[in-house]
């Protein structure tokens, strides 16, 4: 088990309100099955790799895709952390590794600060056509101007995510503590809460908990 996953499990041991953990593992390892066996814990529901920090077209790597398929075969989830420049490669990746429980973190980080829209918007729609891809309403404030952003700047991106995925495939995420670089936890929550109340109030319970509980296999 990796140091990160051990740390997260130790946190869960001390805080019973932590019911699910997304850890890290070397998904390119040719010993991936052994590593997963060694890391097995009912609270460890899936994994994430920081693909946005990798050089080249990482999503096309054979060993990486093999690792993701191994997760899918074990009914584990995978959080996709990419940026908008890597988004065009996502449909081919999804086709190669799915179906399974896959969720896009931070909406692939659109250029909110610069007011960028295309090709992010079209690339997102192409990825959202895969019905097994979900998306987190998270990490958007850090793509805007820290602490001076306005909700009106971010809401068009929230609206596009809602159009692309529908409320049934969206889940709120705080991105805490990273969000603190651009906003308080309360401001991050209020941003999405106010948006949901105005645009899809009937989905509030789903977006703020039920969808994530179902996705991570923690629903009662």
From TrEMBL:
<dbReference type="InterPro" id="IPR006680">
    <property type="entry name" value="Amidohydro-rel"/>
</dbReference>
<feature type="domain" description="Amidohydrolase-related">
    <location>
        <begin position="5"/>
        <end position="217"/>
    </location>
</feature>
<dbReference type="InterPro" id="IPR052350">
    <property type="entry name" value="Metallo-dep_Lactonases"/>
</dbReference>
<protein>
    <submittedName>
        <fullName>L-fuconolactone hydrolase</fullName>
    </submittedName>
</protein>
<keyword id="KW-0378">Hydrolase</keyword>
<dbReference type="GO" id="GO:0016787">
    <property type="term" value="F:hydrolase activity"/>
</dbReference>
<comment type="similarity">
    <text>Belongs to the metallo-dependent hydrolases superfamily.</text>
</comment>
<dbReference type="Pfam" id="PF04909">
    <property type="entry name" value="Amidohydro_2"/>
</dbReference>
<dbReference type="InterPro" id="IPR032466">
    <property type="entry name" value="Metal_Hydrolase"/>
</dbReference>
């Amino acid at each position: 088990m990796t140091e990160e996953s051990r740390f997260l499990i130790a946190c869960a041991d001390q805080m019973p309100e932590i019911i699910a953990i997304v850890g890290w593992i070397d998904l390119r390892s040719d010993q991936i099955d052994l590593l997963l066996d060694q890391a097995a814990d009912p609270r460890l529901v899936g994994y994430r790799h920081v693909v946005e920090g990798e050089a080249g077209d990482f999503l096309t790597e054979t060993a990486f895709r093999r690792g993701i398929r191994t997760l899918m075969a074990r009914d584990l989830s995978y959080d996709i952390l990419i940026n908008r420049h890597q988004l065009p490669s996502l449909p081919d990746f999804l086709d190669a590794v799915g179906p399974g429980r896959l969720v896009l973190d931070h909406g692939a980080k659109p250029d909110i600060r610069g007011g960028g829209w295309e090709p992010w918007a079209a690339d997102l729609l192409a990825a959202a056509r895969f019905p097994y891809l979900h998306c987190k309403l998270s990490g958007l404030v850090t793509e805007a101007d820290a602490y001076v952003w306005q909700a009106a700047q971010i809401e068009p991106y929230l609206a596009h995510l809602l159009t692309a995925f529908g409320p049934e495939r969206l889940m709120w995420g705080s991105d805490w503590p990273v969000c603190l670089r651009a906003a308080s936890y309360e401001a991050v929550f209020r941003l999405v809460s106010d948006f949901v109340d105005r645009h899809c109030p009937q989905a509030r319970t789903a977006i703020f908990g039920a969808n994530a509980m179902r996705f991570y296999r923690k629903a009662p």
